[in-house]
Amino acid sequence: MKTFFRGFILFVFMVTTASCSLFPVQQTAGEVTSVKATPWQSGKGYPTSPEGVVQAFLVAYQEEPEMMLQYLDQSVFGGWTPESIVENLHFNGMIDSFAIRNATVNNDPAEAVVVVDILISGELLLRSFLLTPHDLYWTIYSITRID
User: Which of 14, 26, 71, 103 is the most exposed place for a label (fewest CB within 10 A)?
Assistant: First the structure.
């Protein structure tokens, strides 16, 4: 009788396991898993630091101007085009080089300021980027020309 009982338990276990793999649980509309999308669209990963965001923004200016939009705070820059962003930068042309001069992160209010030296056609330009955190990433809130 023990052998029959053990065999029956084993049989029930195997049938249950097999039915689970043959008939997976279907999700209903209320159970759909949501994934929060980050602005990064290339699949390489969104920069985790304010300096990284500014650096990626300036690289996008050079290589893929449409990609600049993903680093901007959409509450401020929503509806802007790459052309309007370049106009707001107050420079045009290829960047010869750039260097982050200073980066400061504040907790209250939560913001970061990144000051960058940008060399274009032999002219050194200075820009200040104000960034604000959104969930797990930073976005550029404003870009200021420093004379």
Answer: 26
H or E stretch at 117? strand 111-120
For residue 118, count other CB atoms closer than 10 A to its CB.
Answer: 18
Long-range pairs, 64-71, Cβ under 8 A, ≥24: 67/41, 67/42, 70/39, 70/40, 70/41, 71/39, 71/139, 71/140
Closest CA to 67 of 50, 49, 53, 87: 53
Which phi and psi angles does 116 have, rounded to 5°?
-125, 135
Return the bridge partners of 146, or none: 126
Domain boundaries, the chain: 50-146
Helices and strands, counts by H and E, the chain? 4, 4
Instruction: Please name which of 85, 91, 93 lies closest in space to residue 127, comparing C-alpha atoms.
Output: 91
In whole angstroms, give the CA distance from residue 87 to residue 110.
27
CATH fold for the domain made of 50-146:
Nuclear Transport Factor 2; Chain: A, (3.10.450)
pLDDT in tens, 76-102: 888 888 888 888 888 888 999 999 999
33 three-state secondary structure = coil
